[in-house]
Fold this protein.
Amino acid sequence: MSGQLSRRGAVFGSLALPLLSLGMPRRAWAGERMVVSQYGVVLNSLPWAVAQSSGLLAKENTGVDGFVGANGGGAAVRNMLASDLPFAELSLPAAISAAQAGMDVRLVFSSVNNIGELSWVVPQDSPIKTLQDLKGKKLAYTSPRSTTEMILRIILTKAGIMDTVSIVPAGGIGAGITALNEGSVDAAPMVDPLLTTQASKYRVIIPVNQYIPDLCWSVGVTTPAFAAAHGDQIRSLILARRMALQLMQSDLPTAAAVYAKAWNINPQLAASLLPKFFKMNFWSQGNFNLAGLQTQVEGMHLVGQLKGPFDVTSLIDKSYLPADLQT
């Protein structure tokens, strides 16, 4: 996962008008663009870039020839509902917030199993050596109600030190590192490629995957009306993404070339980073990691984005997944 993590949650009242048209006839599939939150920024979107560059989108007759990035949260949901193709890959908190606001949405695939390489770091010369050493310290996260805030609260709460630590929004990954360099905070979140290229300058103090091995934070979202009328298109898109993942694993140089071009990073660096994500089982084939879904719901409760019980499985429809992934 690279790039800035998006702010979660928004006001959904403006979504009502686009919803009115979802049951209406729509034009035939032809060169549509699909909304993918943080496309070309966060690494969960890489399979879509590979599917496009390899021709799999056309081969599987998906009707999609490109993608529209969104900053996440309500903006991503609004973009999806207002588009000709009300099917998108969005953050799970955005989808849950939409459902809580009365939007009729369904989750039809999962794109990730965990948070990837996200870690909190300290300067190499910091006296902080363990999680318990963070007591009395100040830690940065990206923005209020973001995935980074949720993750940080989960880890600190489970460690029993949440009440002893000060956490503050920095405004983004880069801003957090700047605050760390200036001494304004004692630890800050970091992702690749910086984790790799700056390893001599910073030391990982919270490797998130060691504390939270399951986290489903990005999912495929659509509406029941669209799915009922265009199930074949949804199935073809999910299949094209799965085939792109298989291509990425069998042909690393091709995947690295797409990664380098779409993310504008050095090709050799891209090739060195990708194996790490396969080793940590970062990408989902499409099936849902139920433990990961529950972790995300827990995080939403901790930041006040959810109040009271919420059954996230009530939003899931597995019928559009390949048969072997439906169990």
User: Anything to note?
Assistant: Strands lie at 32-37, 64-70, 87-91, 106-110, 119-123, 138-141, 166-169, 188-190, 202-207, 218-222.
